[in-house]
């Protein structure tokens, strides 16, 4: 039993969320008492835990489940209902013998922690290669079946969002806040040094637009970390649709920082050259206060689904799918009011590592629109 306890300690401790999190030794003792019996040591090499999903997960309280898997049991069951059929097959054998609920648990363990696939395999009693196949399958199911949860607001929704932003900061007609963030990679994809950002670590760009409720309304990802934020924007469907006169109701716009070009539909702050007047400085402060919603949303995304703090796979397609899945999970948490406040934070290290100024000219219509907003400040 002493050896079993030591093995339990290694496995469960390796999957703790973060060494800085509060760690309940009472809970570990609970796991010892209820989980030691599931260890099987019939093989002389690489013993595995069995029965964890069947025998231990049902004993988790609501708080314990959410602590480890970052979503409530109710939300887990709803996701399983929507994608469970995609995780089954009639062919049998191999991964097909793993129930959809267990596949989803494996995926949530991966998304919620920074542990390796090998450690997840030990945890769930399967091989590392099987973990990889499960993650790829669940990622595909998320992207194919739940991506519509990230949706641009229609004109009626834009009116409601604008009212909320106006209550928040006093400016009218804002329907979202735009920003980019970097998803750290363990190494450059294909050895391409373009993935190194200005802070000298490899990353991939994620551009998001967030509404007043912290919902992600538009996402765009896949560009290497060295790419300027404004260039990412110009290659996105958001830019193409906005330039074509689509997406935005009359006078509606989104806000961003000074890394982006000023447009009638994209309002940025005045560049502080030391000669700003009182009204311009005040406008910048108001805009900054409204822009914090996107910073908080990115903080929630990375704090809750910590796989997005660093992705260790090397396939670009799977990296993109993992990022999209994390964004889908973020929106589900917002919609379900699933303890979002527990993970809200503004990470001081989350800012754009490149910190490049805007490289594209400001639009004349944008300059006029911003001046109208300055003059209309209450």
UniProtKB/TrEMBL annotation:
GO annotation, cellular component aspect: nucleus
Lineage: Eukaryota, Metazoa, Spiralia, Lophotrochozoa, Mollusca
Domain DDE Tnp4, residue spans: 178-331
Cofactors, names only: a divalent metal cation
Highest taxon of the lineage: Eukaryota
Pfam families, alphabetized: DDE_Tnp_4
UniProt cross-references to InterPro entries, sorted A to Z: HARBI1-like, HARBI1_dom, RNA_pol_sigma_r3/r4-like
Keywords: Hydrolase, Metal-binding, Nuclease, Nucleus
Keyword Iron-sulfur applies: no
Taxonomic source organism: Magallana gigas (Pacific oyster)
Compartments (UniProt record): Nucleus
Family recorded in the similarity comment: Belongs to the HARBI1 family.
GO molecular function: hydrolase activity; metal ion binding; nuclease activity
Protein name listed in UniProt: DDE Tnp4 domain-containing protein
